[in-house]
Write a structure and sequence with these properties.
- With about 200 residues, the chain is mainly alpha-helical.
- The chain has one domain.
- It is built from six helices and two strands, in the order αββααααα.
- A two-stranded antiparallel ribbon has the order 1-2.
- α1 packs across α4 and α1 crosses α5.
Length: about 200
């Protein structure tokens, strides 16, 4: 499996079905949808962090880092070894004691952007056209979500693939209705209970 998602890659129907099945799910926010033997977990309530209007939750960063570190075992021995860091690399001492977890995740993104800017020009495929770049980033998030959820190290993989296949067989009206109902339920949960996990 390739680790890199290119911004111009088309989203395949099975990828979109897996992602939308998760977004439309009636699972509890505390139900795990991604889990490995190392204890890395993404909960249903964190799935909306794959959408384009939100920050990437630290649990998603940790799970992707676990995957990348696992992939290192399969590369050529002549290539230099790499270690992909998870969000734990951010020490508590780097933050104000009163800072919320949500802000810490945003700060991680800020640190990453500062690092990238410090390294000079970063050619990543973005064009500078705001709408095109927003669409490309959403495609990239969807592709990463689909890849992450379907990885063999995810113990919930089979369930998610089956859910995606079932969602893919629905007609467009049924899919739209399920996604709208789920979005409304998620808004009520977030409004009533605040941010979870």
């Amino acid at each position: 499996m390739q680790r890199i998602v290119k911004l111009d890659e088309r989203i395949m129907p099975d990828e979109l079905s897996v992602c939308n099945a998760i977004f439309a799910s009636q699972r509890d926010y505390g139900d795990a949808i991604w889990e490995d033997e190392e204890g890395n977990i993404i909960y249903q309530g964190n799935a909306y962090h794959f959408k384009d209007t939100t920050f990437i939750h630290w649990s998603i960063i940790d799970c992707w880092a676990a995957h990348l570190n696992g992939m290192e075992a399969f590369k050529s021995t002549s290539s230099p070894a790499r270690l992909f860091f998870n969000s734990v690399m951010l020490e508590d001492s780097m933050f104000d004691d009163n800072e919320l977890e949500v802000n810490r995740s945003r700060d991680f993104g800020d640190y990453l952007r500062l690092y990238i800017k410090g390294e000079g020009k970063w050619t990543c495929g973005l064009t500078g056209n705001k709408q095109n770049d927003a669409n490309a980033c959403m495609r990239m998030r969807t592709k990463y979500m689909a890849r992450l959820m379907r990885l063999s190290l995810n113990i919930h993989r089979d369930m998610l693939v089956k859910d995606g296949e079932a969602f893919g067989k629905l007609d467009m009206l049924q899919k739209t209705k399920l996604l709208q109902e789920s979005e409304e339920a998620a808004k009520r949960k977030r409004k009533g209970k605040g941010v979870r996990k």
